[in-house]
Amino acid sequence: MLILYRRAYNLAVEKYINNEYKDKNGLWKDLRKEIRFQCEEEQKNKDSVYNSNIVNEAVLSAKKSFKAVIRNNKNDNNRGKLNFKSRKKLIQSFVIDRMPKGLNPAVKTLGKIDLTENIPSEAIGKSCIITYNKGRWFIQVQKQIQVKSDIQGRVECIAIDPGVRTFATCYSQKEVIIAGDNFSKNKLLPLVKKVDKLLSEKKKLEKKKQEDKQWYKDRERYLEKRINKLKCKKDDLIADLHNRLAYELVSKYDVIFLPSFETQKMSKKNKRSIRKVTVRQMLDLNHYKFKEKIRWYAKKYGKHLVDCNESYTSKTYSWNGFIDDKVGGKKIISDGNVIVDRDINGARGILLKQLTKAT
Question: Rounded CA gap, 81 and 79, in Å?
Fold first, then answer.
């Protein structure tokens, strides 16, 4: 079904790129019937499963993307571009218009599958997204949740200092929470090294491709499964860290100060002042995804997430305001009398800075 969805989407995109989406009167045509016919003929020739609903959703998705490009180009000097879906993309997805009743919501489309969670009753009959990611399938369904009311009583605040060596250092009036200390080095880096080794082995197979094509295909498939398994393990470790920390913070605190951690700017080769290994660890930790996760948790539990600026907080002594420009990459910060962990000092500085602004 992924192949069918991608094919229908790309056929629609081709029509939009070649300006074949309007009739003689200049009105937008409904491309679904034309593309349905073409896809059905192609699937018959391949003896593959055909589903008209999948094709319809793909065409509508392409139309939605095209309209978004037109809308964005009006305000952004024609920088937007409509692209085809690639089969090499790691994450593939398609839409089912109406989820049928029963324990298996996609039995007619995907065949027999086993679900790890129960489907909520309100999701039946509504659209859902089925995603394929590194050898695993995910079904995204609609679920109604009750969002908690606004903050009442005393307001508890906490500041987060994101980092690489330590994923997040959180400082409040009553405690310090250190999450993911050396997490990337101890947990992720060993997995990444194994993936690199397997990728290198996969690349070396190219030399033996012509000698035994069947052996090459089997070996490549085996290596791909191992690579995906390791990547999934890494993704699960990161997601677990994100979820645990986000839930703990929204359970205890009402206002969370989270500075913008601009990993893209810091990782650019021409401007960066950090090493390649550090850049890789930073990107693996996926701070942006954590920000989106904690934003959702805050909305769900009626808490407030405040975006803030962390400039000079890691260089500034939080106890007297003096700026130390020579702190470099040291793990501690000290003026000779007071010695403090640098990340804790940074988190405390963020909290003081934001509370001072508020008052």
Answer: 7
**At residue 157, what are phi and psi to the nearest 5 degrees?**
-120, 150
pLDDT tens sequence across 19-45 = 888 888 888 988 999 999 999 888 888
pLDDT by residue (tens digit) across 176-219?
999 999 899 899 999 999 999 999 998 888 877 777 788 888 88
Domain ranges of the chain: 2-140, 157-358
CA distance 303 to 254: 5
Entry field: residues in the chain: 359
* Cα(38)–Cα(55) distance, integer angstroms: 10
Give yes or no for a contact between 257 and 346, defined as CB atoms under 8 angstroms apart: no
Cβ(350)–Cβ(308) below 8 Å: yes
pLDDT surpassing 60 at residue 349: yes
Indicate the pLDDT class of residue 63, thresholds 50, 70 and 90.
very high
pTM of the model: 0.80
The type of residue at 164 is V
Whether 194 and 209 have beta carbons less than 8 Å apart is answered as: no
Coil, strand, or helix at residue 121? helix
> At a CB cut-off of 8 Å and minimum separation 6, what does 323 contact?
312, 315, 316, 317
Contact 251, 153 (CB under 8 A): no
| Segment among 50-54, 59-63, 206-210 with least mean pLDDT | 206-210
pLDDT value for 168? 93
Provide φ and ψ at 319, rounded to 5°: -95, -20
In sign, the C-alpha dihedral spanning 186, 191, 196, 197 is positive
Q: How far apart are CA 276 and CA 324, in angstroms?
A: 26
Question: Count of CB atoms within 10 A of residue 51's CB?
Answer: 18
- Beta strands in 204-254, from DSSP E residues, in sequence order: none
